[in-house]
Amino acid sequence: MSRIEKTVFVSYRRTNASWALNVFQDLTQHGYDAFIDFQGIASGGFERVILENIRARAHFLVLLTPSALEHCGDPKDWLRREIETAMESRRNVVPVMLDGFDFEAPSNASRLTGQLLALKDYNALRVYAEYFAAAMDRLREKFLNVPLDAVLHPASASARQAAEAQQAAASAAPAVGQEELTAQTWFEKGFNAADLDEKIRCYAEAIRLKPDYAEAYNNRGIARADRGDLNGELKDYAEAIRLKPDYAEAYNNRGGARAAKGDHDGAVKDFAESIRLKPDYANAYYNRGVARTAKGDHEGAVKDYAEAIRLKPDFAEAYGNRGIARRGKGDLYGALKDYAKAIRLKPDFAEAYNNRGLARAAKGDFEGALKDYAEAIRLKPDFAEAYGNRGNARTAKGDPASAKAAIADYQKYLDLGGGIRNGNQAEAEQFIRDLKNKL
């Protein structure tokens, strides 16, 4: 009979660190050689150390909570890469499903793509907080008590040293208390909740139980943003950053909140810090581009969108916004190319059709502009700005039939609230009166 290996790699999302530490400490106390990236490995050797240690261990545990797969749609996501490496290396993969996780939840199903789709076919262990000890007994006695015939790949000396340093730090850490585990349970409830007030309540409870829970502050900030509480979200992001100064996502989120308040200088600073902490953060480059466009820095915005596109080549919104920045610079040809690319990547991108219409109108191509506005309206029937822009293009054509159609477009623009929202209600009403007088 093949020998039973007692070597384990524990894979987890940082928001679930307490659960991961609890699992690690239990395994270590029962004689297992377990690996956990507890303190964080220096970026230079991170990839090598992680991948070598996956291949060097017989068993691979991946801790799954409702939020765990949140970023797994990104091929570069590290949790995804760890799982894929374990599958490719034919490790004994054990999905550890913590309270609230469901493979069939729509949010999870949409992220289980490619090789990751097979994850739900593995024999999984369900763990409930109140029965943690019993679940760990079952893990050791059933799930890890199996022979592994695949050849293990010994890790290099440096990878072993890094693993030992992480093991020592994790072993020396205080035992995880019940309150901390309960805080993570509340965090996951908040992540899973559909109602914004319920989300905020759950995150608040997680923070009460674990006052240094930076991720809970960040997520409560997101929920407050969705509820329109700008001041509340700013306070939450600030606290998340105070607790975790290298929290790139919190800087990015605070930048968005500052931009929403009109503080574009502060937003640019936050996005820049987010990028410094996480140089491959495509969304932060994109968001800084938006803030720079709002400041009138079209040149800087074009550079930011270009970097976002380099990092994420199918980023339709970045192409669309680079088109806006290029049009702001007077580069109508470049803008048209970007809008066309955005539309190819995202055929239902109503805003890109509307903006391409503006660029075509600026070049005097009113027929092309009208076609784009019509498609924008077909895709988004309540798109007030597209009606207003089509009214402008029809007015520019100058013939009576176009003028009559323009009146209907301007009226629809007003009916949909475009005039109030954009502060040009009186101007649009005057356009209608002038056109009627001409007719």
How would you characterize this protein structure?
- There is one protein chain.
- This protein has 439 residues and is mainly alpha-helical.
- It folds into 3 domains: 7-176, Toll/interleukin-1 receptor homology (TIR) domain (Rossmann fold, 3-Layer(aba) Sandwich), CATH 3.40.50; 177-245, Alpha Horseshoe (Serine Threonine Protein Phosphatase 5, Tetratricopeptide repeat); 257-334, Serine Threonine Protein Phosphatase 5, Tetratricopeptide repeat (Alpha Horseshoe).
- 64% of the residues lie in helices and 5% in strands.
- It has helices spanning 17-29, 43-55, 78-88, 106-109, 132-143, 157-172, 178-192, 196-209, 214-226, 230-243, 248-260, 264-277, 282-294, 298-311, 316-329, 332-345, 350-362, 366-379, 384-397, 400-415, 418-422, 425-438, and strands at residues 7-11, 33-35, 59-64, 92-98, 125-127.
- The protein has a 5-stranded parallel β-sheet, sandwiched between helices.
- Helix 13 runs parallel beside helix 15 (316-329).
- The longest helix has 16 residues, at 157-172.
- 46% of the residues are buried.
